Amino acid sequence: MLAAEKSDAVSHGLLERLSDARSESDALFALVHSDSIYERPIPERHRIIFYVGHLEAFDWNLLNESIAGVKSTHPEFDRLFAFGIDPVGGGLPNDVPTDWPALDAVRDYVRNIRGVLDKHLATAIKNPDAERRDGYPLRTLLNVAIEHRLMHVETLAYMLHQLPFQMKVSPKRQRNLKDLSGVTIEPDTIAIPAGIVALGLPRNSQSFGWDNEYEARKAEVLGFTIDKYKVTNGQYLEFMTAGGYEKRAFWGDEDWEWKSAKAISRPAFWRKEGDHWLYRTMFDDVPLPLDWPVYVSHAETMAYACWAGKSLPTEVEWQHAAYGSADGSMRAYPWGNQAPDGEAGKKFGNFDLRNWDPTPVNASPQGQSAFGVHDMLGNGWEWTSSVFGPFPGFKPFPFYKGYSADFFDGRHFVMKGGSARTAACMLRRTFRNWFQAHYQYVYAGFRCVSR
């Protein structure tokens, strides 16, 4: 392919991906009844209306100076919708719906920004590798805009999941309860040999990565044994039946204080009706599917692991089990090098916005790693024991200095893998996610290791 043709292909692909990402976020907001757009389904988060404006405000603040230099027609909205909230940090927000602009005004703001940016992108994208901001090319800035939006498409799903069912537009579908028969998965473990693990991206990589993905390095890992599958609802129910939430010995000091103060006695996605447990899916309650992965906070995973006499894997151990192989090579994905997008990617796992809910942990055998570990990409992020921090040589993006650095506080933990609502572009080997230990609403599960 000639250089000019390659540039055109990159340009077309970036604009198409931006358009697709916008469609995904628009579709998500369309699930909320208009009279519920000022709700706050998760106490620690902004109201839904904030995010309607935030995605465009972020794109405007990131791109306008580089490609348009147009004076803002709504600088107060640029500021109002600029920054989100770190969950479980600094107390709960106390704003009221009347503190926010009318929905029609926010939608006009969104339409205006898209119109201005798209007009100027049509010209600027002809050279996506030209430096546009702080020495970074437009190609990088657009990847930031696209993935930022897709991250919110996922984290907004966490919020909408907690929104009362009657406030959402439920898709017409018939759930087959035979698929929720309560089959128990037989636990198994896989021995992972010692090896050398590749982490991070090289600074000269042509692939996009966020600032915390740099720089590339290698780490030694000793042999260990890891669960073949994610911990299921059925296994977690055994922990609960054994008094897991009542026994102090299973919990760290801060975790016990949190659990006690908040009266936490179950996963956030569960509720009891009589003698039976129900599971809250995006659009209905169903009998607890015992073969689905359990979604819990980091604090709850640590208590379970203590009860089971095991540990959570470190980030390095998880990386080795997912992408390593007996011959020492590293795969691009657990199953090999085939990309996880498109129709062909469906067989490898539950990801790329295809489903609203989990699937059984053994439902995608073709996605297993070289060592035979199942379900490591999709179907729920996986908590690790590693505190989120920088790799050696870390440099923040100058145009988004707080993206990672604001969370190098010793209170956030690395998650790897992905969920059903994680876009394919963020299933790359180097991608790192993180949350605080006491946040229950993430689509995140875990598996244990023995050393």
Q: What descriptive keywords fit this protein?
A:
451 residues, alpha+beta, Four Helix Bundle (Hemerythrin (Met), subunit A), paralog of FGE (formylglycine-generating enzyme), 3 domains, 4-stranded mixed sheet, 3-stranded antiparallel sheet, 10 helices, 14 strands, globular, disordered N terminus
Describe this structure in words.
The protein is of the alpha+beta class and 451 residues long. The protein has three domains: 165 residues, Up-down Bundle (Four Helix Bundle (Hemerythrin (Met), subunit A)), CATH 1.20.120.450; 205 residues, paralog of FGE (formylglycine-generating enzyme) (Alpha-Beta Complex); 54 residues, no CATH class. Helices cover 32% and strands 12% of the residues. The strands form five sheets. The chain has a four-stranded mixed sheet with strand order 12-11-10-13. Strands 3-6-14 form a three-stranded antiparallel sheet, covered by helices on one side. Helix 1 runs parallel beside helix 5. The N and C termini lie far apart (49 Å).
